[in-house]
Amino acid sequence: MRRIPPIDLHAHIESDIASADLLELGSLVFAASRSLGEAAKVVKRTDPWTVWGVGCHPGLVGAQKAFDTARFTELIQQTSYVSEVGLDGKSRVSMDVQQETLGAILGVLVQSPRIISIHSYAAVEAVLDCLAATPVRGAVLHWWLGNAEQTRRAVSLGCYFSVNAAMLARPGSFEHLPLDRVLPETDHPFGDRSTGHGRRPGHVAGVEGALARIHRLTDEHLRLQTWRNLECLVREAKCGSLMPRNVRVTLAAL
Question: Is residue 11 domain-resident?
């Protein structure tokens, strides 16, 4: 099997970026949108190594106000990825509104599973409560800041976790995460600020290296493990047919 590219499970990318620029990243990038309007501009793109998401960011008043369940349902027919959605305890949007939006999203995804990148800043317990109330397949807790007990609860709910370079500044932030539930992310341009001149979507070498050291693996074996984790996630969510062809071929070769 040829060398497989790194995975960036959560990054923000401008909707008008050229396909050639995406290819130069040399990575499989899951590109999160922050509103249905933004998602509508990108979900029909057919970039070979970029998966464009449908999102409604809990921190954005306009995105939450404009959320429409029927439109969300229509948009996700064209992608395997829902992001960025969730709850934010510091948002100007009331928690009642956020929970109503997330509840509607999860309700749709019970019937149409997707990989779901979920924001839980200052709202970890509330997000886990929502997932317990409406169990879905394919949930990935993005930039996970939960403690060991909350992590165990998330694992019992079937969740995966995506981790970025900013988390390296918090000692022990990776150690309690099961290796078979972890995927790298950048959360570009927010979660990769600490990487200095290397900031770009798909640049997850620092995260891969940290995970490899914790689990005493070579970098090559760590990357293979992340692809196996993605394969399990895709299989659980039954959304493989919506992945770009290059991704489907790589997953099949595992």
Answer: no
